[in-house]
Write a structure and sequence with these properties.
By secondary structure, the chain is an alpha+beta fold. It has helices at about 35-45, 55-65; strands at about 5-10, 30, 45-50. It has one domain (about 5-65).
């Protein structure tokens, strides 16, 4: 699984998670550094939160299972 980081959307932008289609909360959320999120970082649509690494690990454990695409979806079984 890709490394997890807490990402924050640029103020005023609505950035959606590609799997859930939910907007990234203004306070940030842990996300795996897949090609999608790396592109958002490069484009300046999101930024990395300044947090302690242990916080990301704890949050990442809670999110990792929820982040898996649903069975039968076009993304199921494909790693980014």
């Amino acid at each position: 699984m890709p490394e997890m980081k807490i990402l924050l959307p640029k103020p005023g932008l609505l950035v959606r998670d590609p799997l859930t289609m939910e907007p990234l909360p203004a306070g940030g959320a842990p996300k795996p550094l897949t090609t999608y999120w790396l592109r958002r970082l490069k484009d300046g649509d999101v930024s990395l939160a300044n947090v302690v690494a242990a916080d990301v690990t704890k949050a990442g454990v809670a999110v990792s299972a929820a982040y898996a695409p649903p069975a039968g979806s076009p993304r199921a079984g494909k790693g980014d």
